[in-house]
TrEMBL record, chains A, B:
Domain annotation HTH rpiR-type: ranges: 8-84
UniProt keyword annotations, A-Z: DNA-binding, Transcription, Transcription regulation
PANTHER family, per the entry: GLUCOKINASE, TRANSCRIPTIONAL REGULATOR
Matches recorded under InterPro entries: Homeodomain-like_sf (IPR009057), HTH_RpiR (IPR000281), RpiR-like (IPR047640), RpiR-like_SIS (IPR035472), SIS_dom (IPR001347), SIS_dom_sf (IPR046348), WH-like_DNA-bd_sf (IPR036388)
CDD domains reported for this sequence: SIS_RpiR
Cross-referenced Pfam families: HTH_6 (PF01418), SIS (PF01380)
PROSITE patterns hit by this protein: HTH_RPIR, SIS
Identification of the protein by name: MurR/RpiR family transcriptional regulator
Domain SIS: 138-275
Length: 277, 277
DNA sequence: TATTAAATGAAATAAATAGTTCATTTTTGT
DNA sequence: ACAAAAATGAACTATTTATTTCATTTAATA
């Protein structure tokens, strides 16, 4: 019997061997099967107390399943928790540690696989960390605004571009602030009281985006912000602020989660319009 | 100021005092705000490395916020994670059991979850169905081209936009064909023999994109195509053709997989340039 | 720019946590 | 019921992890 590589395997092994274990080891087994969170977080001493066995029994249990110590079992549970909820950064680090030169570092396919992995993770995080309330508020604001001005420069420009396209398809008066013809100021000055500004900006935050945010605040317009950190300079001006944890490969940040968020907003808005007309 | 009793309180305190903190303490602050899971799981040594500060700074940070040590902060995040995962597991179970009206069909969060889900799958598919050979050939062609012309209209415009941005950062002569000022024909006619055209087009295929493809073929330029079907009208002209299977929610197609592909190409190219110079 | 205070980081120390040992108890087979 | 073997638990040791210290650097003040 090989040593278990993840929780599911371990649980299977425990169940299949349960009847052959000694009394104390059964106690441990049943605790291990029922208390995932405790295993991930508590110390051996605490776990031993909870399971009502001496600490050494835990180590014996681990060794009975071919581990070098109980800590390896705890690691298993930790990693599982991380995979369920973790920020992609944690994930990526784990990947790098556990998956050395498989596809070949720097090779295109390897890069693609890393991005795919990291994006997939970021998607999950986005879905779990975004609240219904934020979303509904944002959609509501979008649906009530006279005009919607969208700004996102440099890296964020493509996201802004897409959102503008999508909102137009939801029959919104959406305008992309692109600075075309050097007309940033002219475009910025259009924002009025019943309008809404949606800014997308990641570190390093573009000057113009921050300026628009200020201008919008002054004009009394509502604001939705999509950014990458709680302490983003934009967060201060926002009515609704989405902090998106994008994945990255080496130093290259992905965009996928932001794109997903933006598209979800547009589609949710489309649904809403449909139901109210 | 009383000591924070939970994550939300702590985050508020950090944000409000951020500007008054020293440089290193700000580094820690920003890491603490953005890496919940790392804080729950990693040791001080690991966190210090990730935040790029010495361990002692973490303890100083904790003390600046009235904790007795950094471990108290870690406890805060652990407790929060336990609560969060418990409720997430519950929610996930409920979702599966009551599929229909639980999160609410058409509700923003439900839409976001669906998109996150299908995108995550699409990522996986992309990573497994794309071949090393295609990718390497594409990267090679990109690195050798005199000029790179990129076209993608309507829905694909944002992807084209992003690729242009990314290639410019990899020090490529990349040009976005955007039809600005009604100059499609003028832009198209620039394509020469040693140039490369990268077209992105999904059904329904934009006329201009197909035209460019033909023009490029006539001019003897190389072509990379990103599309959604083997029988796309573009596939015929391509030297390398990526068929991307995007996810969709109801009738709304996602874009994330294409974005991921495009970014991987750009990063792979950047790596290649770096290694050859 | 000289002086002092604040911030920083490397290395040492303290605390905690995990794992080992061995004497004792319990079980098993005859 | 009696070895012999297996299981058990208390106390000990080793290891890892958190915290403190202090010499050095950086920034502020006069």
């Amino acid at each position: 019997m090989p040593v278990a590589k993840n929780i599911v395997q371990l649980q299977q092994q425990i169940r299949s061997r349960y009847d052959d274990l000694s009394k104390r080891l059964q106690q441990v087994a049943s605790y291990v099967l029922d208390n995932n969170n405790s295993l991930a977080f508590d110390t051996i001493a605490v776990i031993a107390t909870q399971a009502d066995v001496p600490p050494s029994t835990l180590i014996r249990f681990a060794k009975a399943f071919e581990f070098s110590g109980f800590n390896e079992i705890k690691q298993l549970f930790r990693r599982d928790l991380i995979e369920e909820t973790a920020s992609y950064t944690d994930r990526a680090r784990l990947l790098k540690e556990h998956e050395p030169e498989q596809t070949g570092r720097g090779k295109p396919l390897h890069i693609l696989q890393q991005f795919a992995q990291v994006n997939s993770q970021a998607m999950h995080q986005l879905a779990t960390q975004t609240s219904q309330q934020q979303l509904e508020m944002a959609v509501d604001m979008l649906s009530k605004a006279d005009n919607i001005y969208i700004i996102g420069l440099r890296r964020s420009f493509s996201i802004a571009t897409y959102l503008t396209y999508a909102l137009r398809h939801a029959e919104c008066r959406a305008f992309l602030i692109d600075g075309l013809g050097g007309m940033f100021n002219e475009q910025l000055s259009m924002v009025g009281k019943n309008d809404l500004v949606l800014s997308i900006s990641f570190s390093p935050y573009a000057e113009e985006t921050v300026m628009l945010s200020k201008a919008a605040a002054k004009a009394g317009a509502q604001q939705i912000i999509i950014t990458d950190s709680q302490i983003s300079p934009l967060a201060a001006y926002s009515d609704v602020c989405f902090v998106v944890n994008e994945g990255k490969v080496d130093e290259f940040r992905s965009q996928s989660a932001s794109l997903c968020l933006v598209q979800s907003l547009a589609v949710a808005l489309a649904f809403k319009q449909e139901n109210t007309h």
